[in-house]
Amino acid sequence: MPRQQYIWYNGKFRKFDDVKVHIFTNTIQYGTGIFEGLRSYPTTDNNIAIFRLHDHVERFFRSAQIYMFQIPFTSQQVENAIIETVKKNKLEHAYIRPFAFFEHKGISLNLLGKQMSVSITTVPFGNYFANKEKGIRCKISSWQRINSAILPPQAKASGNYLGSVLSVADAKLSGYDEAILVSDDGYVAEGTGENIFLVSSNRLITPSPEADILLGITRDSLIKIATSMGFVVEQRNVHREELYTADEVFFTGTAAEITPIISIDSRPVGKGKPGPITKLLAERLSHIASGADSKYAQWLTRIY
User: Fold this and answer.
1) Between the CA of residue 221 and those of 183, 227, 299, what are the distances in Å?
2) Domain 6-124 falls in which CATH fold?
3) pLDDT digits (tens, 9 = 90+) for 139-151
4) pLDDT at residue 83 above 60?
5) What are phi and psi of 14, to 5 degrees?
6) Residue 271, exposed/middle/buried by CB under 10 A (0-12, 13-18, 19+)?
7) Which residues are tagged catalytic?
8) N or C, fewer C-beta in 10 Å, the chain?
9) Cα 195 off chain centre by
10) Cα-flanking dihedrals φ and ψ of residue 51, to 5°?
């Protein structure tokens, strides 16, 4: 029988299946929530560590500030709550979801002064993509990435992902694993929930913030790691056709970690299999997340 799991909910732990909200709450009706996604990993010294906890919580509060939402807890309280939730649920490989949302009922779009609730949920988690090790097949979505004239792409808000829902459905119905979105000016932006990197002539290239990407924390980690390994990393506008001629392409993200892309719009990427630099960086990231590299110890929050 699976072990009982708990959700941290407004300062108290509740059983996983006992947390309920009303169907008429504002967040269910309008998607007015903000969230984060983190992972925990077992470490080489028999601990469990949360990867870049502080950075994720900082972004959580930045998202709230952008939308003028008031979180009724401090960032330190949220960090502590995440640690306690991972401890209580005793999960090594966990996906961690802090979520701030509105429970008040009604159809008003005026949220100024309204109280938010906060929950923290952990679930066992492995690979986000079933074909991660072999690589995935992608298509360019006909749906564009949101931009700052429509919704703030730098906020990790629930409603921001509706375009991703459409793009995933389109990709799946077309026989692909995932979609790649472009910005309104035609430059490559990101996946439906991942950042994207290209490898060309041993250089790493990734779309810049001007392409309306979410500034991913795994993306930031990869830029720092790759630079320390001697790779040149370019952040710039990326033309769609560059994806077709790249040596390697891969996604990064908390859920995706590093996932090779072996085909885009039915065109093989490189040799049509995960490339050596993608594999090298994936191994390096896994090594760091396990606590085996003291250089990046500050990225890990050990919970015992």
Assistant:
1) 23, 10, 9
2) D-amino Acid Aminotransferase; Chain A, domain 1 (3.30.470)
3) 999 999 999 999 9
4) yes
5) -125, 155
6) exposed
7) 156
8) N
9) 8
10) -85, 120
